[in-house]
Amino acid sequence: MSNKSLTALIVGVVLAIVLWNSFYIVSQTERAVLLRFGRIVEPDVKPGLHMKIPYVNSVRKFDARLLTLDTTTSRFLTLEKKALMVDSYAKWRVDDAERFYTATSGMKQIADERLARRLEAALRDQFGKRTLHESVSGQRDELMAQVTTSLNRAAQQELGIEVVDVRVKGIDLPREVNRSVFERMSSEREREAREHRAKGKELAEGIRADADRQRRVLLAEAFREAEELRGIIAPRFAYFAEYRFKYLLEPEALVAKFEGERRQFVEAIVHTSARARTWCTLDFEALYGQHGADRARVVKALEYFQEKGWIELDSKQMTEVYALLDTRFDAEALSGELHAYFKEHEASEIARIDNMLALFESAECLSQRLAAYFGDRQAPQRCGHCSVCRGQVAKLPEPPTLAPLEQIDLAARCAEFSQRYTQLKGGAPSAECLTRFLCGISVPVFAKLKARQLPGFASLEAYPYAEFVRAWQVSARSGRSAGRPRPWSAARCPPSGCWSSPARRAGR
Known about the structure:
Helix content: 40-55%
Shape: elongated
Structural class: alpha+beta
Number of strands: 13
Distance between the termini: 126 Å
């Protein structure tokens, strides 16, 4: 290759390099400034293809799209001096390329750092003007709008950037405050739980008392009907033993509605009625003794007051009166007969439930078992549609394993109850009475003794009553085996005695 050709090649390469460095492109998503030896000669270069003097002029390009400034969580104080942990971010873009280059040298990191300080100051100022409620919910949108406006004004003047939006992502309490709030809420929930448990226990006691009352009513009605059929007693009349009322207007206004003798009668009712906080209880004996007012007239007057809407009347303790027709009956013989009847009824109920449980666990066809129970001898041996015929024999769960009864101190559990019973009845309680006390089976005498409040009440309710605890009680009181109770244990409990809960309750 000749010298001329080499020179021409070198010149061509140099010209190509110069021409390549003489052109530059600014895209639509960019802002640019043209520099000449570091000085801005064209502050805002429009998008497109442009020319420059190589090695004299230089171009600095900046991203003109929306950029995000994600700040760290900061601690601010409200107007009430309450601390808040605020997490926020800002959306911004380059608005004035010349000012942006002058302030930040075109570096986004510097712009983010300065903008973050400005944002923190603006947020601190706005939170300091508002309460906790206003900052969190009441004026949150207004707060962000004001921060955006103030921050945009300062950023345009100092940094040449436009702040489009400022958002508060989250407002939380400090960790120590959250912990204290959680502890307070936890204690509040525990208090509510205790309250609900107490109400549930109260309702359970009410249900249990109502069940006991219904049982006594049924027994009393059965006894009454039996005696009526025997011709020993005859019903005469019934009345409420206790009346109470609540004033719906002032007593003076009630008395003022009457004149003469009726006014005196109403005054006597008002003066002789013992008033608690809300309810007044009538004293019929005082009314009759001091004012000669009979019971029927007083009750009729109260019912009239209730009809007029002057009082709210409440009646309790229905008392039925019977006439004794035959005084020659033997009370002891009748008591023994009734006791035997109830014991027979108890045994039949227990047998009925045992038969029901045996049916549930039967490995024979259930339909055939039921047919045989009702005397149908023509039923097929297998019906084909019951659970047994399908190969699904039911198996009731085994009762829980109970601790041996010989490890239980009988005297300690029954000492206080026996003392109260002796003071009331004048003699020691029977083995059956003690057994009912330990198993939690209510009888009328327990209400007088307040047996439910004693520590030993229902302490052995998990044990079978009929075959297990009663036999243990009897053996303990009889001093069998050298004055010691017979060593019963859960393992020695017979199959018929270890009932499930329905059968056990029936056994009671």
